[in-house]
Amino acid sequence: MGRWFGVCVLTITLCLTLTCCGGEGGNQAEQLALDIRGEYLDMAGCTASMAVTADYGQRVYDFGVSLTWQREGESVLTITAPENVAGVTARLTDDGEAVLEYDGAQVETGPLDDTGLSPLSAVPVLLDYAQTGYIASCGMETLGEREVLRVDCRDPEAQPGTGRECSLWFEPDTHALLRGELSQDGYTVIQCTFSGFQRIPGTEG
Description:
21% helix; alpha+beta
């Protein structure tokens, strides 16, 4: 009974979040977004390399990151570039706490917006949107030289360009996350470009 109820809840969640996809190739994009959401809801974790840009308005930081994310337990992000900060490691707990470590020292990073979003919390936030965010629109588009799926998420009660919004790009064959952007009131504060993205299947996978 519990398993049947869980499947019903998951099905309802997936259907409700896909009501706004449309346009040319809309059916294809809707089904692809549905398939990807189900897989991301099931996965136990993921690994990837990232190029991250954090825009604080008056200053912009670019760096490379190696990522190991786990749904339960500790997730680890290690800075790989630039060279002067390579090796700095962020450890994120599943209760939302984050700390940077380097040679035993611990430092904090400041928020990018008034919601407390930081470069450390960006990946869990992007994955939350991939798994459960309200999909305002989705469709196929060209990224670089390949066709990919773009999914745009936001608060269903908010107008476009207000509050926090998220855009995600997925490889249509492997369903790997290629890129993610987070914006606040129409201003992009985080851009993450992923390479070598690998999902770790959950127990049902």
